[in-house]
Design goal:
Helices cover 22% and strands 27% of the residues. The chain is α+β, with helices and mostly antiparallel strands. The strands form 2 sheets. It has a 4-stranded mixed sheet. Helix 2 links the parallel strand 4 and strand 5. It contains 2 helices and 6 strands, in the order E-E-E-H-E-H-E-E. The longest helix is centred in the middle third of the chain and has 18 residues.
C-alpha cells in the first residue's frame, strides 16, 4: 500500500507529491538512472532534450517490466537535465507528465546539471517503484 502526501502548509506542487509513504512489507525496486541509449548503445536524439526524455521513459519502462513493475507503480524519481534554462527543464517535465510517470502523483525532483555520463546525453531519470505482488492463481474448484 502506498500513500501520496501533499503537505497543506507548503506551497502546492504542480504535478507531484511532497512525499510518498510505502507500508512496510512492500517490495521496492531502486532503479539505476535510465539513459537515452538505443539497443546498440548510441545516444538517441543528440541535441534534443525532449526526444531524449521520451527515450529515457521508454528505457525506464523496460527496466520496470524486468522487475515486475511499471510506470504507474513509480513512487519517486530524480530527473536530471543538462540545462540551466527553466524552459528546457519544463519541456522535459512535460514528457514525464505525459508518460504516466506522474500518475499519482509521485514524488520527484527536477534538476538542471552541467553534464551527464555519456557524450551528448541531456536527460537521465532514476526511479524507485513498488513491485506489486502477483495476483494469486485462482484455485480450480472441483465438483463432486
Amino acid at each position: 500500500m502506498l500513500e501520496r502526501v501533499t503537505v497543506p502548509t507548503l506551497f502546492p506542487p504542480p504535478t507531484y507529491s511532497h512525499a510518498t509513504v510505502v507500508e512496510a512489507g512492500t517490495k521496492l525496486a531502486f532503479l539505476a538512472g535510465a539513459v537515452p541509449l538505443d539497443g546498440e548503445g548510441k545516444v538517441v536524439g543528440v541535441g534534443d532534450a525532449v526526444r531524449q526524455a521520451e527515450q529515457v521513459v521508454v528505457n525506464l519502462g523496460e527496466q520496470l517490466r524486468a522487475v515486475g513493475s511499471d510506470l504507474g507503480h513509480v513512487v519517486a524519481t530524480d530527473v536530471y537535465v543538462v540545462s540551466s534554462e527553466p524552459s528546457v527543464l519544463s519541456a522535459v517535465w512535460e514528457v514525464v507528465e505525459a508518460s504516466g510517470l506522474s500518475a499519482g502523483p509521485h514524488s520527484s525532483t527536477l534538476v538542471g546539471v552541467a553534464c551527464l555520463g555519456y557524450t551528448g546525453q541531456l536527460v537521465e531519470i532514476t526511479a524507485t517503484a513498488v513491485v506489486p505482488e502477483e495476483a494469486p492463481a485462482e484455485e480450480e474448484v472441483s465438483q463432486s
